[in-house]
Design a protein that fits this description.
The chain has helices at residues 11-41, 60-63, 90-104, 127-132, 145-151, 179-192, and strands at residues 52-58, 78-84, 113-119, 136-140, 160-163, 168-173. By secondary structure, it is α/β, with parallel strands linked by helices. The chain is rod-shaped.
Length: 196
């Protein structure tokens, strides 16, 4: 027959058991405390994008374009957009070059992107300049008044813009942009987008 031991409990063993219980409780509570701290105390930094996100607004001529009209090539594509005069001085030529380079840097995704020069002024665009940047679509501003109304805030010739594949004006880059940062924004857009 077994007998019950009446020996006093070992204080070292009791401390070890208490310590293990405290550690176990901390391990269980720590994730909850961390989630509360992150939710209530941590404020994420500024947005990661370089370009200024605009209020997404449909460009009527592109969003409602027919499949065989002048805007057909823009439907379903990410569009890099610039506005400038037909004579196309150096700042205009710089933007054409930037748009071409930005499209090329997208690698295998570049076919998802197109370039649009909205020619704001009288007369046709400089033919030699347009030939130099083959693939850029040039349209007179008068042919796309809905877009021009959207761009009238500030100086539209100072920026590069992005129109999404659904025909929405959605982003603008600063004057004389950092092309590496623009490239990262565009790569991110193309990576996360299921359209275009």
């Amino acid at each position: 027959m077994a007998t019950l031991s009446t020996a006093a409990p070992d204080p070292a063993h009791q401390r070890k058991v208490r310590r293990n219980l405290v550690i176990l409780a901390l391990v269980c509570i720590a994730p909850m405390l961390a989630s509360y701290a992150l939710y209530y105390l941590w404020r994420p930094g500024a947005a990661k994008n370089y370009g200024e996100l605009l209020q997404t607004t449909p460009v009527p001529e592109i969003a409602q374009a027919a499949d065989n009209g002048p805007f057909a090539a823009l439907k379903g594509k990410w569009t890099l957009l610039m506005v400038d005069a037909p004579a196309c001085a150096k700042p205009c030529a710089d933007k054409l070059w930037q748009m071409r380079q930005l499209r090329l840097t997208q690698g295998k995704e570049m076919e998802r992107m197109t370039r649009l020069w909205v020619v704001d002024g009288d007369g046709p665009p400089d033919a030699a300049r347009l030939a130099e940047y083959e693939g850029t679509i040039a349209l007179p501003a008068a042919q796309i008044p809905g877009l021009m109304r959207l761009l009238r805030e500030g100086d539209p010739t100072a920026h590069l813009y992005v129109i999404d594949p659904l025909g929405n004006l959605m982003m603008r880059f600063p004057k004389d942009p950092d092309l590496n940062r623009v490239k990262k924004d565009l790569l991110h857009l193309l990576k996360v987008s299921r359209i275009g």
